[in-house]
Specification:
single chain, alpha+beta, Phosphatase 2c, domain 1
């Protein structure tokens, strides 16, 4: 049955979508795209498009954009970002580490995109600092060697597993002094009009849209697992002793349990990656007010760090702010990307 017959049968008008693959490189046309979760059947502007496979999967409620502009044929993903880290007012050294990888040329914006990664080391003394630095540097090195057009939903977990192996090996090589060395990690990769986020531990990623900050990662802590299982309430978790005990981390086992999700992004969105030194002191509503509605990112980052310090500064404080200036609207059909007009 043809498209016209289907349309007549159901009494609906089926509008054609203009697509183009001619502007893409050969490597982009050929890559499998097995990890992409975008479907041409998804509703435009639906926010989070990650389809959970388990009953306990995390589904953040992301507000719809106020305006969805049509990108021109020449549009590309454009963004601005700022990074800040601070030792806080209690610790004598900083165990947080962060970094990024940006395209060296416009073509790499399509073949690779942008990588942002933040890690919060644990283990005491200087071992936490070693773990977080090792993990971040592993991610950046692996991303730079990735194949052109490799699907981010498969690339990102693979890079996190490599980072886990490097931290694990560093802990073994360090002997007793490195026992217990580990780190949390939150990382995201942006390309076209999508962001893929992966994390292990309690470092978070927020998506700020229309001045509202929505947490799009789930804390891997004992308290959060107890809440998910219905053992304790959120209030009991906030007051309990297990709220800072990690249920997952990098470097403690040979294989890490990585959680990954994917979201559509729009011009004006802001991604906020942070360690618990920030999100433990600053509310999501305050993040949205400081970073949303076109606020200056440099000033917002300084205010966020200052606010966390004013409220005790009991831990290292790190934040990455990424604002989306423009996107290149793309779809995925049978493993191949195509441009939407």
């Amino acid at each position: 049955m043809g498209i016209a017959q289907i349309a007549r049968k159901f009494g609906q008008a089926i509008m054609p979508v203009r697509i183009s693959v001619s502007g893409l490189s050969a490597s982009q046309r050929d890559f499998a795209g097995a990890g992409s979760t975008w479907s041409p059947h998804e509703k435009e502007g639906a926010g989070s498009t990650w389809s959970p496979r388990a009953k306990d999967s995390f589904q953040p409620r992301i507000p719809l954009p106020l305006f969805i502009g049509g990108s021109s044929a020449q549009a590309m993903l454009e963004l601005e970002f700022v990074e800040r880290t601070d030792v806080g007012r209690v610790r004598d050294h900083n165990e947080d580490y962060l970094g990024h990888a940006s395209p060296a040329a416009p073509a790499q914006a399509r073949t690779h995109g942008w990588l942002f990664v933040l890690a919060d080391g644990v283990g005491g003394h200087e071992q936490g600092e070693v773990a977080s630095k090792t993990a971040v540097e592993s991610m950046i090195a692996g991303f730079s060697k990735a194949k052109d057009g490799e699907a981010h939903a498969t690339l990102l977990p693979r890079l996190v597993q490599q980072a886990n192996a490097h931290v694990f090996e560093a802990a073994l090589a360090g002997g007793r002094a490195a026992a217990g060395m580990a780190t949390t990690m939150v990382t995201c990769v942006l390309r076209f009009d999508r962001v893929t986020v992966a994390h292990v531990g309690d470092s978070r990623c927020y998506l700020i849209r229309n001045g509202q900050a929505v947490q799009i990662t789930r804390d891997h802590t004992v308290a959060n697992e107890q809440i998910r299982l219905g053992v304790i309430s959120s209030q009991e978790a906030d007051e309990g002793s297990t709220r800072h005990i990690l249920s997952r981390s990098l470097g403690t086992e040979m294989v890490a349990n990585v959680e990954t999700n994917d979201h559509q992004i729009f011009a004006g969105d802001v991604l906020l990656l942070c360690s618990d030194g920030l999100h433990g002191a600053v509310q999501a509503s305050e993040m949205g007010a400081l970073c949303g509605h076109g606020q200056d990112l440099h000033g917002a980052a300084e205010k966020l760090v200052a606010l966390a310090n004013d409220r005790g500064g009991g831990d290292n404080i790190s934040v990455q702010l990424v604002r989306i200036r423009d996107v290149e609207r793309m779809g995925m059909y049978r493993g191949r990307p195509y441009k939407l007009y």
